[in-house]
Design goal:
The complex is a heterodimer of chains A (262) and B (106).
Chain A lengths: L1 H21 L19 H8 L6 H12 L9 H4 L16 E2 L6 E2 L1 H12 L10 H12 L14 H13 L9 H5 L6 E2 L2 E2 L10 E3 L4 E3 L1 H11 L10 H13 L9 E3 L1
Parallel strand pairs in A: 5-7
Antiparallel strand pairs in A: 1-2, 3-4, 5-6
Chain B lengths: L3 E4 L3 E2 L4 E8 L21 E8 L2 E7 L9 E7 L4 E9 L4 E10 L1
Parallel strand pairs in B: 2-8
Antiparallel strand pairs in B: 1-3, 3-6, 4-5, 4-7, 7-8
The chains are: A mainly alpha (262), B mainly beta (106).
Protein name (chain B): Thiosulfate oxidation carrier complex protein SoxZ
Organism (chain B): Henriciella algicola
Organism (chain A): Henriciella algicola
């Protein structure tokens, strides 16, 4: 009897080992890739398409003004970043990326704050502050239409693996993983809503639910809260890793900032 | 500081009907919601939107708490003479924001 139990547990171990091994194979990602835009109602799509009425442009206007206004210490972003040197058009499509100086993974918000602390002698903006959202939205908007392409080699490989692990791990009281909705069941209905493929291409985006512009990390916090898991802090390593995984997963889709989402 | 976006033509011919659009960044907080700490979020509403064209009121609206954040208005007027179009929003506490657009009638 005891031997039987031991045999059973040995079998379990092997089986569980197989499951772990299985997640190392290429993930079953959505095909064809569809931006969250494709899952919106026509009226919401029209709002995103209208470069005047899209409320996200309120933040982009502010971001553009901040970009060309000198800070207290005397330098404006626009002094270094011109069309001729260090142009930012297309740059946002390659984030998150590894910062060469520190070796850490940073997203667009992180890069803007590094610019402030390293080159402008200013304090970093608080995550999700109006200023950081506005600047991030403006810089991302400069890359609107550029297909996303991120590097997951070298130092980024571990981050990518961590992000994928977060995406595929069941969590919260509902015991759901991101992949169960966004890889396995996209296009189907969840109550009154159509489940999207979960791409972050429109962020920072104006969400009708928020009545405001918000970052991808705010969206991820909502996802975690939605499955009744503990949301991670803004700018946390977990969310940076997920952001990298999502960017790789959305590779080829174009940046849409400012997106409008439900 | 509220960000304002105005869409209006710079020039128009006399008698032409022109489209004016105005968008303002404002939370339009109803006063009925509570925050994450369970406390009530104070009411904060724009109550009045007025537009004058060459000194004459061409559009006005009373706003209520049922109106969403960042309200946008689209309306039409007939171009008569060259002059300033002044868009003005006033909130419940009397604070106001305005933006002027100059229209030239040819």
């Amino acid at each position: 009897m005891k031997a039987g139990l031991a045999l059973l547990s040995a079998f379990c171990l092997t089986a569980c080992g197989d499951v772990v091994a299985d997640t190392k194979s290429p993930p079953a990602q959505p095909q064809p890739l569809q931006s969250g835009y494709e899952f919106l109602q026509p009226q919401t799509q029209a709002l995103q398409d209208d470069d005047f009425a899209n409320p996200g442009f309120l933040w982009i206007d502010r971001g553009e003004a901040l970009f060309s206004t000198a800070t207290a210490s005397g330098s404006a972003c626009s002094e270094c970043h011109t069309d001729a040197s260090l142009p930012l058009a297309g740059a946002a499509a390659h984030y998150p990326k590894i910062d060469a100086e520190s070796g850490d993974l940073i997203n667009l918000e992180g890069r803007i704050n590094l610019c402030r602390t390293r080159h402008q002698n200013e304090a970093a903006f608080e995550y999700e502050s109006d200023e950081l959202l506005s600047l991030t939205a403006y810089v991302a908007y400069l890359s609107r239409g550029t297909p996303i392409s991120v590097d997951i080699e070298g130092a980024a490989a571990d981050w990518y693996a961590r992000g994928r692990d977060y995406f595929e791990t069941r969590r919260g009281q509902f015991n759901l993983s991101c992949t169960q909705c966004h890889d396995d069941n996209w296009g189907k209905k969840l109550r009154g809503d159509t489940i999207s493929q979960g791409h972050g291409t429109g962020f920072p985006a104006y969400r009708l639910e928020w009545q405001s512009l918000g970052s991808l990390h705010r969206r991820l916090r909502d996802c975690d809260a939605g499955v009744r898991a503990e949301p991670r802090p803004y700018g946390s390593d977990d969310y940076l890793a997920v952001e990298l995984y999502l960017a790789k997963r959305a590779e080829g889709l174009e940046i849409e900032t400012p997106g409008v989402r439900r | 500081m509220a960000t304002i976006r105005i869409a209006a033509p710079d020039t128009a011919s006399a008698g032409e009907v022109i489209e004016l659009k105005a968008l303002i960044q404002h939370p339009m907080e109803t006063g009925y919601r509570s925050g994450p700490d369970g406390k009530r979020i104070e009411r904060d509403i724009i109550e009045k939107f007025e537009v004058t064209y060459d000194g004459e009121t061409v559009f006005e609206a009373d706003l209520q708490p049922g109106i969403a954040a960042n309200p946008i208005f689209t309306f039409y007027t007939r171009a008569t003479a060259s002059g300033p179009i002044v868009f003005k929003w006033t909130d419940q506490d009397g604070e106001s924001w305005s933006e002027t657009h100059d229209l030239t009638v040819e």
